[in-house]
Amino acid sequence: MDRRRFLLTSLAGAIAVASAAGAQHRVPRVGLLSIGADPNSSKPNAWDPFFQQMRDLGYVESQTVTFERRFAGGRPERLNEFVADLTRLRLDVIVSTGELETLAAKRAMPTTPIVMMFVPDPVAEGLVMSLARPGGNVTGLTTLAPELYAKRLQLLQEAFPTLTRVGVLFNPTWRSAVTAARDIATATKALRLQVRNVEVRSPADLEAAFAAMTSEQLQAVLVVTDGVLFNQRARLAEAAVPAHLPTMCEVRNFVEAGCLIAYGPSYADLSRRAAGYVDRILKGAKPADLPIEQPTKFELVINLKTAKALGLTIPPSLLARADQVIE
Question: Which end of the chain has fewer beta carbons closer than 10 Å to its terminal beta carbon, N or C?
Answer without folding.
Answer: N
